[in-house]
Amino acid sequence: MAGQFSGTPIYILREGSQRTAGRDAQRSNIMAAKAVAGAVRTTLGPLGMDKMLVDTLGDVVITNDGVTILKEMDIEHPAAKMMVEIAKTQDQEVGDGTTTAVVLAGELLKQAEALLEQDIHPTVIAAGYRAASEKSMEILRSSAVRISAKDEDLLRKIAITAMSGKGSQSARDELAVMAVGAVRSVVDEDGTVDTDNITVVKKVGGGINDSLLVSGVVIDKDRLHPSMPKSVTDARIALLNAAVEIEKTEVDAKIQITSPDQLQAFLDQEETMLKDMVDRIAASGANVLFEQKGIDDLAQHFLAKAGIYTVRRVKKSDMEKLARATGGRIITSIHEISKDDLGKAGLVEERKVSDEKMTFVEQCVNPKSVSIILRGGSEHVVDELARAMEDAMRVVGVALEDKMLVPGGGAPEVELALRLRAFASTVGGREQLAIEAFADAMEVIPKTLAENAGLDQIDSLVALRSAHEKGQKSSGLGIDTGKPVDMLKLGVVEPIRVKTQAINSATETAVMILRIDDVIASKSGSGAPGGMPGGMGGMGGMGGEDFE
C-alpha cells in the first residue's frame, strides 16, 4: 500500500502485509462465512449426520452439536471466526440452536451477495436486515404459546426436541424425564435456573438406559477409612472448610526437648488436640463429614472409631452443591460447629459405579442441587450423551424462565418468511429488497431439514408455504412423510429464545461482515508492530490472528 507524494512512494504498511479492498474483501468474507455454515449444515435436524473431528494429538470427537464442531475446527479466516462467535453466544445464552444460528447467518450473507451484485449498497441491506429482524421478534412473540412450570409434559417434549438427532435416540424419553426432573429441582425462588447446580457425572460402562437421576449429590470420592460405615441412613452432614490437623505456626518456632518424657507429653498433647477436634464434630450430632481440606491420619482413626462417614479434599464447587442439596452450612471453624449447621439426607452411601467408588448423598428433602449419572458403551457415546443432556437441561431452563414456546420443524421460519414478505411491501425504497432477501433466508431452515431427511427441498417448501398461507401457523415439516404436520400436536416444540437469539445473532453478524470493505492483515511472524515511525505503526499491528 503506497501513496504517491512528490514522486516518491510512501509505504505505511509493513512489507509483506496484505490488503484486500472493496468488492474483493466482501466476496472473500462472505465466502468464508458461507463455508463455515456449509460445514455444519448437514448436522441440522433430527436426521442430521455427525462429524468426526480429530485434533493434532489424535483425540477424536464425534458429534453433531454445532458449537462443538466449530470450537474443535481450527479456523483461521477472520470472517469465519466471527461465525464461530455466533455459535458460542447461542450456546451461552440458550444451549441449543447453535447450528440454526450459523446456517441462518450464512444464508443471510448469500442472499446479500445477490443484492450487492445489483449494486445495492451494504448500508441499505443492513438497514433492511435490521428492520426485518425487529419485525421477526414481534411476529414470534405474537404467535408464541404460553407455558408454566406445571406443564411437565410440554417441558419433556422440549427436552426431547433438543436431544433429537444427538445420538441419544434410543433412550430419549427416559433422558428427557431426567432432564426435566433435574431442572425443576434447581429452580430458584425468583424463577431463574442455573444448570451449574446439576452435576453431570460421565461413567463409561453399562448402557444408555443405565443412566440415573439422583435427588442429591454424587461425589467422585470414596470414604476415607475402611472401618468407617459404608452406608449411613438418616444422615446429619457436617460440611467443614477447616483442616482437621494440627496447625503449623506462622513464625519459625523451636521447642527444646531434653527428655523422652517431654517428647511423649508433646505427642500426647497433639493426640489430645486431634481427639478434641473429632469430639467436637461428633458432639454436634454429625454422622457424616465432608471436608474441603486435609485430615490427619490420627484424626482419621478417631473419626472411624466414632463411626463418622468421612470424605476429604472435596472440591469447593461440590461443597456448595452439598450445601444446596442438604440445607447445611459450610463451617470454617471446628470450634463453631453446632447441630443447626448440619445438613440432612436420607442416605449417604459408598457405591461402586463401573470400577470406581463414589459417594451418593440421596433422599434429600428439597434438594436445590441434583446429580445425573450418564452411562454408555464407550467414551464417545458418553461424551455425546453429556452434550445432548446439557442442551436439554439448558433449553428446559430457558423455557421455565421465558414461559413461551414456539413450534419446531421449520414452522416459525416459514411463518416468518410469509409475514415478512407482506411487511416488505409496506416498506418503500430499496430496503424492501433487503427485507425480501431476509424472508428468503429464513426458509433455509425448512429446506435444510428436508434435505437432511432425504426429502425433496422444493416440494417440501411449497407444501409448507401453502399450509401457512391457509393460516396453519404451527405447520412444520413431517420428517417421515415430507408433508406439513402440526408441530404443536406432534409435540415438537422449542423455547422462543432459541429462535430470537439465533435470528438476532445471525443478523448482527451478517450486517457486520457486510459492512467490511477493507481487510488489512499484517505480516505475521515478527514480534514488533510494523510500519513507519511517526505514529503509523498501529496499522501494521493488526495481526491476522486477532482479527475478531
Describe this structure in words.
This protein is α+β, with helices and mostly antiparallel strands and 548 residues long. The chain folds into three domains: 18-145 and 407-521, GroEL-like equatorial domain (GROEL, domain 1), CATH 1.10.560; 148-215 and 371-402, 2-Layer Sandwich (GROEL, domain 2); 218-366, 3-Layer(bba) Sandwich (GroEL), CATH 3.50.7.10. It contains 18 helices and 21 strands. The strands form seven sheets. Strands 9, 10, 11, 12, 13, 14 and 15 form a seven-stranded mixed beta sheet that branches. Strands 6-17-20 form a three-stranded antiparallel beta sheet. A hairpin with a 2-residue loop joins β14 and β15. α3 (78-93) packs antiparallel against α17 (496-514). The longest helix is centred in the middle third of the chain and has 24 residues, at 260-283. The chain is elongated, with a radius of gyration of 30 Å. The two termini are 22 Å apart.
